[in-house]
Amino acid sequence: xxxxxxxxxxxxxxxxxxxxxxGTFVEHMGRCVYTGIYEPGHATADEDGFRKDVLxxxxxxxxxxxxxxxxxxxxxxxxxxxxxxxxxxPRRLDLxxxxxxxxxxxxxEFSRWCAKAGVEPMMAINLGTRGVQEALDLLEYTNHxxxxxxxxxxxQHGASPYGIKLWxxxxxxxxxxxxxxxxxxxxxxxxxxxxxxxRMIEPGLxxxxxxxxxxxxxxxxTWERDVLRETYEFVDYISCHAYYGNDAGDTxxxxxxxxxxxxxxxxxxxxxDHVGAELKSSKKISISFDEWNVWYSDRSRSTDGPGDxxxxxxxxxxxxxxxxxxxxxxxxxxxxxxxxxxxxxxCLAQLANVIAPIMTEPDGPAWKxxxxxxxxxxxxxxxxxVLHLQTESPTVSTAAYGDVAAVDAVATYDEGxxxxxxxxxxxxxxxxxxxxISRAGVTTIDEAVIIHDSDPLATNTAADPDRVTxxxxxxxxxxxxxxxxxxAISWTAVxxxxxx
Length: 500
Ligand code: AHR
Prior knowledge:
This protein folds into 2 domains: 2-9 and 386-497, Golgi alpha-mannosidase II (Immunoglobulin-like), CATH 2.60.40; 18-381, Alpha-Beta Barrel (TIM Barrel), CATH 3.20.20. With 500 residues, it is of the alpha/beta class. The strands form 6 sheets. An 8-stranded parallel β-barrel has the order 3-4-7-8-9-10-11-13, surrounded by 6 helices. The chain contains 11 helices and 27 strands. Bound molecules: alpha-L-arabinofuranose (AHR). Residues 27, 29, 70-72, 171-172, 213, 291, 349-350 line the site of alpha-L-arabinofuranose.
C-alpha cells in the first residue's frame, strides 16, 4: 500500500478557526424557502410556519451564518414586499428563476427563523435594479433602534432591531445573466457609494463587495482589481463563488476540485493585496466565499421555466449527491479552513432542496444528503487554531490540474484537543496515512469517522435516508504516531485529546 505522512506542530498556526466558515445560504429559489425551511401546514411546522425538522437539521449541521435572500433573486427584489401583514404582500415575477414570488416569507420571517436556528443573518442588498437609497432604507428598517419612519414600521410589525452586521453589496453583478448586470467600474462606483452611505448610519458594518461569479469568468482578476480600486477603503471583504461538477465524467479531476479552490483564493488574495499596494493602504481585504458547493444540474435549464409557465416554488436544481460529492465537499472545507487567515466567511450554497445538504418533501420527510456529514463533522470538531501541516503524499494525475497530492489534510488545535481532517483523492487505491502528533501532546483518540462506500455513487433518498452515513474507522495511536488507512475516495476526521 502506498503511504503518506503528515507532521503536526501546534506552534505552526495559520489563524484561529473562524466560525463564519460554516455558513450556508437561503435564497428565494426553487424550494429552498417554500416547502424547504418554511411550510405552514406541515406536520412539524411551528407557529411561524417553519419546519421544525429542518430547523433541527440546520442546528445539527452546525451552521453559523446564513446568507439571504439571494443569489440572483436579490437583483430584482424589493425587500419591502416581504414585511408587514401577509395579506397585503404582493405577488411578483421573479426574473432570476422564472417563477412567482408570493412574498409570504420575507425579512421579518427570515430574522425570526435565524433566531430559532441560532444562526447569524448575512443580508444581501439589491444593487441590480436598485441603489443607495433602497439600501439605506433597508438598513434603517433592520438596525435603527426607533423614532424614524422605517424603524417605527419594524416596531409596528412587532420586531426589535435585528442588528445585522454582515452585508453583501449585491450579487454576481459581473454575470450577464444578472438582472442589472454591470461593468466593473459601474458596479465599483455604486458599491462604494452604497457602502459609504451605509457606514454613515453604522460605521461598524462588515461589507462584502462582489467579486467574480467564478474564476472562469472572462473578467476574473480584472473585475476584482477594478472593483477594489473603487471600493477598497469602504469594504471589508470581496466575494468568491465556485461550483464544481463532474459533468464530463472526469472523476479524478473532480476529486481534485480543492486544488482549484486553493488557487482561486490565492489569486483573489494576491489581487486584493496588489490593489492595497497601489493605494498605499495598510488595510487587508479578506474573502467572503459566500457561494460554494458541488453542482451538477444543467445551469441553463435552471433559469428557464417550462414555456410561459410562472410557478410558485418550482423544483429547481435539486441535485442528489453521492459519496464522491461528499468527499469533494469535505475537501473544499479543508481548503477553506487552510485559508482561515484570509477567508473570513464561507457559505455552502444552499441550505435546503436547492443544491443542498438538507432535502425535504412537501408534506413529507426531511433527510440528510451525503454532503451533510463532512460539513456537520468539520463544524463540530474544528476549534482553536488552524495549523499549517507538513504533508508528504503520493500524487494522482488529473486532466484538469496535472499531478496533485492524493492526500490533502488540515488540522486544528485547541488547548489539548487536536482534530485532523484528511481526504484520499485517489480513485485507485488506499493510502496508509501516518500522522506525527508527538508535538501536540495528545494521547487519546476520541472519535475517528470516515465517509466512504464500496459504491462511490451511493446516495441517500427519502426512502433510504441513512444509506450514506459516517462510519467509525480504525485509527491507531502509538508512540506519538497516528495511523489510519484512507481508502480510495474517502474523507476522514479524527479528534484527539490529552488524558485528563
Ligand atoms: O446558488 C444558486 C445561484 O448560483 C445563485 O443564485 C447565484 O448567485 C449563483 O450563480
